[in-house]
Write a structure and sequence with these properties.
There is one protein chain. Helix content is 42%, strand content 17%. It is α/β, with parallel strands linked by helices. It has a single domain, classed as Rossmann fold (3-Layer(aba) Sandwich). The chain has a five-stranded parallel sheet with strand order 2-1-3-4-5, sandwiched between helices. 39% of the residues are buried.
Length: 211
């Protein structure tokens, strides 16, 4: 089983990064391979909407996005961590999401999959923090993340959303948040293992001589 962990904060050691590191630690303790991607360290252009993807479903812009795309498509689980900026994900995260427009084209234009008529192949964990206590603080980002995962045939398995965290290190005042992230990473790994076992059981039954 493989998980890709995407760090979407502009800060390398901010609150979302600390939470993500705990989730990664939990998943690895459960025996799952985790590939970490720090978006700030990559060169990924925004989508230029040239629709070079219409024929093949692959983005025509050549940069670090291709590497991330291959890891996303090879993953069984996706961990995404981003702080909140203007009620949605960070610019680094949104640029990656927008470049996945090519995957949307592949899925819905080329392969002609009907919306809502697909079976999840992957599971996603979303980790996010915001500075304010706003009631609707995470509504925009959750909707965005849901449709980002949609193009990857992934379901939003769990969200860890924490208010009142702004300055670097604020999350250290809440060890229960860090523990929850660790536990969630471990639980995601177990959930993926269970899903894989179910698929294996179904395939075995389908190809059994007695079936």
């Amino acid at each position: 089983m493989n998980i890709i962990a995407i760090f979407g904060s502009p800060r390398l050691n901010g609150n979302t990064a600390m939470l993500m590191h705990q989730a990664v630690k939990g998943a690895r303790e459960a025996g799952v391979h985790v590939e970490e991607i720090v978006l700030r360290q990559l060169k990924i252009s925004p989508c230029l909407e040239i629709y070079g993807c219409k024929s093949t479903g692959r983005c025509a812009i050549q940069d670090d996005f291709q590497k991330v795309q291959e890891l996303l498509l090879a993953a069984d689980g996706i961990m995404l961590a981003s702080p909140i900026f203007f009620y949605t994900v960070s610019a680094h995260t949104k640029i990656l999401m927008d470049r996945c427009q090519s995957l949307w084209v592949k899925k819905y234009w080329i392969d002609k999959v009907q919306a809502g008529k697909w079976t999840p192949k992957r599971k996603g964990l979303f980790i996010s923090v915001g500075a304010t206590q706003g009631k609707k603080l995470f509504e925009g980002s959750l909707l965005t993340v849901k449709y980002f995962l949609d193009v990857l045939d992934a379901e939003l398995w769990r969200s860890l959303l924490y208010r009142g965290l702004d300055f670097e290190g604020d999350v250290l005042k809440h060890p229960e948040y860090l523990q929850e992230a660790f536990d969630s990473g471990k639980a995601l790994a177990q959930s993926l293992a269970d899903m894989n076992q179910n698929v294996t059981t179904l395939l075995t039954a389908a190809y059994s001589p007695d079936s």
